[in-house]
Amino acid sequence: MSGYIGVPPNCHPECLVNSDCSSNLACIKEKCRDPCPGSCGFNSICSVFNHIPVCTCLEGYTGDSFTNCYLIPMCKLNIL
After folding, report:
1. Which one, of 35, 80, 44, lies nearest residue 63 by Cα?
2. Mean pLDDT, the chain, as a whole number?
3. Beta bridge partners of 42
4. Which stretches within 1-80 are classed as H helix?
5. What digits encode the pLDDT tens for the residues 30-40?
6. φ and ψ at 50, to 5 degrees?
7. To 5 degrees, how large is the angle CA 46–CA 15–CA 28?
8. Which of 16, 27, 34, 38 is deepest in the core (most CB within 10 A)?
């Protein structure tokens, strides 16, 4: 079957659950894939920990890293 691995009659999908993949990948539609694309918002970076995408605002930015991080105003940076 297309998209399956193994030799008939023992063909099977690449994965069924996340633990079938290495910890930096997730089981998406029966394939081990990077879960980051489309997970994080603007001005953020994505890292994968135990199959889960973790979004973090870039340095100097704040906000919700899953939707939008915005530049911290300079006056607030000077106070800290």
Report:
1. 44
2. 89
3. 68
4. 74-79
5. 999 999 999 99
6. 50, 50
7. 40
8. 27
